[in-house]
Amino acid sequence: MRWIGTIGLMMLCMTGMLAQESTDMAEMKRQWVRQRKDTSGLRLALEIAKGYKLNQPDSLTKYAQWVMTQLGDYPRQTYKHFAAEACYDLSIAEDRRSNFDQAIVWLDKSRNFYDDIDDELGVLYAQVFQAWVYYDKGEVIQALEMAEEAKKELESMEDDLKDNKRFLKVYGNVLSDLSTYYVRVGKSDLAIVESDKSLQIRKLLGDTDDVAEITMNFGSIYHDIKNYDRALTYYNESLNLVQLGGNLKAKSVILNNRGQLYFDVGNYNLAEDDFKQSLKIRIQIGDKKGRAIVERKLGDVYLAKGKYKEALNLFEKSSKVFNEIDNKIGLCLSVFGQSLAKEKLNLTNESYILGDSSLKIIRQLKVAKTLLKIATFMQEKYKNRGEIELALKAAEDAQWAQNQIKEEEAEDLLLKQEYQAKEASANRNVYLAFGGALVLLVIALLLFRAYRLRRKAQRMAEQQKDLVEERNKHMVDSIQYAQQLQSAILPSPELFAQHFNDHFLLYLPKDIVAGDFYWFFESPTHRFWAVADCTGHGVPGAMVSVVCSNALNRVVKEYNLHRPGDVLNKVRELVVATFQESQKEVKDGMDIALCVMEKGTKRIQFAGANRPCWVLNDSGELLEIKGQKQHIGWQANMQPFESQDLDQSNGWIILSSDGLADQFGGPKGKKWMTSSFKQKMAELHGQPGSLQKMNLEWTFQQWKGNQEQVDDICVLGIKI
Questions:
Q1: Which residues pair with 7 in a beta bridge?
Q2: Which long-range contacts (CB under 8 A, 24 or more apart) does 405-412 make?
Q3: N or C: which end of the chain has fewer CB within 10 A?
Q4: 616 neighbors 595 (Cβ within 8 angstroms)
């Protein structure tokens, strides 16, 4: 996020006074050394600690902890305000180190000390920061609830303390923080309201830097919701304000934000101007990390403008600094920027080396959006160089990143839904309290016939909408339950690893649940494995798969059949009987490829219903053993299934549904076809199962491209 919370605001405003503070700090330390044996040393230690709240948690801890050591666990009443302040400082230090639980412990102590001396504002001061710690910890709803509670308490004190500067400072802080929390839960309208209130308070306090920062927060909120005109207005206003106060660090931050806005809308010339001004300030104030960040951003601008040599120079400069200060994400982005620039300068080999380095860094950091960008770029480079294993690994990285981004989006959605549920619960309580009055109001309104007729159509539409939403909810619940049922019938892939020399399994349902399934069973004398394709996909296919899987289990367990043809005959009998119970003609069923191995002799037999079996020898020869042209289910002229012996002492046995061959894609949007599948499997002979799976999945994704997956996919390879 581009806006700043309570502590960030406080620290950014401190930077305008750093030069003066450095002189004062040295003098305070000299005084503290002389006076630390008496009580004046406590106040000096806390004053010194304030200078380290910006970015030095160890030094902050040193002085705050010294105060607590002097006071002991049970300080005298007259010294408890020192203890409260020291505990607050220690919580800041722990929050900086991301030790959030310990920060909360210190804040609880701080609140208790403030409470002991009846300092209500102090208690709320600590509570507001405790809410921020919960936010840093990722517990946004907890943070929001604590901040809202503090806001209510402060509002109850407003009449008595509205002219109290300390009150206004704490009240302004909680409003500023609430604006951040509301944006996080999707309530930008409330964020704007709270930011506006905070802004009015900062104006009352007459703190130009604070007013500038809150105004910048407005710009950041509008920037995030892509209201660029309003965002630009607030950025300009905040820049004018901060120039009056002379806070160079704050000016640089605002220029960065405005430059990013110009970059986002494609106005690269104005973006370049702002980043250059910001860079000049970073150099002036000696901000090494900030300078590297702006150099990288300016490199992005030059890259977009086609000034590739200038971009490369800036990326190289920022890379050097990020490496010196051990900033991994900054280093990764700058190295990747070099790769992109060298690609444009036709320095292909150097671009490859730098891109490969950036991918290795981001793999460790696991920042999803950056990983997706770099992995996608490098996947093509690896492929062009014939480095298939690296291309497959990059494809896996990209897939993981996409899934992670979806998970993060889902978490954001759940967070927003959780807050909406909280709001709805609060609203229900209000409705109950005023239920009688509302009923009377509704009755009165219903007496107006004209109004009732005018609203009738709308009410009917709303009722239909509610009905559809309720049905959708039930549908989603049903699909999730179907997924649980299907998961229960699928064997663990580890079973194949336990019972065979090697294996691979590519299982890609089209929807949440699938009509395809794989199956394994071991009796004292035989091993059975199969790939089945049931009628349909999604929920209908999953329902049929449960019936068919259950039939397979019954046949091998209850009827003790071992020959695959006999197994399929009995399975068909059970499936037909199950569907005939509906007293309607049901033609649902499954296609299946089934193999059975006798443990003692290693004899392998196969039977198939509309599905073949492929045998891949170690020499690379691929043999197809066709199944019979009938499915498991009711049909006219049903013939018995027959078992076929497989002459296979080594190599691979491959079973597959038809989903892979039926996938549309490629440059002409055609089916992949079984012939392409067979050719690919022959190419993969000699590779271990894990690599065969990666190659096969990568080939599928490349073929599919942006096309929709048309069917469930299940391919099972067993090494004999």
A1: none
A2: 405/368, 405/369, 405/372, 408/368, 412/186
A3: N
A4: no
9 neighbors 205 (Cβ within 8 angstroms): no
Q: Any residues with CB less than 8 A from the CB of 713 and at least 6 apart, and which?
A: 506, 507, 508, 509, 510, 516, 657, 659, 660, 663, 700
Report d(CA 119, CA 174) in Å as an integer.
17
Stated pTM of the model = 0.49
CB within 8 Å of 421: residues ≥ 6 apart: none
Average pLDDT rounded to a whole number, residues 249-259: 89
- Residue pair 136/95 in contact by the 8 Å Cβ criterion: yes
Residue at 386: amino acid letter = G
Maximum Cα–Cα distance for the chain, whole Å?
Answer: 106
C-alpha distances out from residue 518 to 309, 514, 539, 556, Å = 55, 11, 17, 16
Q: What tokens appear for 333 in the block?
A: 């982005």
Mean pLDDT of 440-444: 42
Q: Do residues 202 and 221 touch, judged by C-beta distance below 8 A? A: no
For the chain, the C-alpha Rg in angstroms (whole number) is: 34
Are 311 and 302 a contacting pair, CB within 8 Å? yes
One-character DSSP codes across 477-495? HHHHHHHHHHHHHSPPTHH
Instruction: Write phi, then psi, for 603 (nearest 5 degrees).
Output: -70, 135
**Contact, 579 vs 634, CB < 8 A?**
yes
| Count of beta carbons in the 10 Å neighbourhood of residue 21 | 16
Cβ atoms of 195 and 172 closer than 8 Å: no
d(CA 75, CA 112): 12
Which residues are paired to 615 by β-bridges?
A: 623, 653
What is the DSSP annotation of 31-86? HHHHHTTSTHHHHHHHHHHHTTTTT-HHHHHHHHHHHHHHH-SS--GGGHHHHHHH
Could you tell me the pLDDT band of residue 22, with boundaries at 50, 70 and 90? very low
Quote the distance between the C-alpha of residue 394 and its chain's center: 19
DSSP state of 447: T
Reported residue count of the chain is 720
Q: Report residue 45 as tokens.
A: 């230690």
H/E element, 195? helix 188-205
Q: How far apart are CA 329 and CA 498, in angstroms?
A: 41
pLDDT tens for 374-431 read 999 998 888 888 888 888 888 888 888 888 888 777 666 665 666 566 555 544 444 4
CB atoms within 10 A of CB 14: 17
CA-wise closest residue to 622 among 662, 678, 673, 666: 678
Place of tokens 């900033």: 327
Residue among 244, 272, 219, 270 nearest 280 (CA):
272
Query: Which pLDDT tens digit goes with each residue over 144-169?
Result: 889 999 999 999 998 888 888 889 98
Pairing mode, strands 670-671 and 622-625: unpaired
- What string of DSSP letters covers 368-417? HHHHHHHHHHHHHHHHHTT-HHHHHHHHHHHHHHHHHHHHHHHHHHHHHH
Residue 564 identity = P
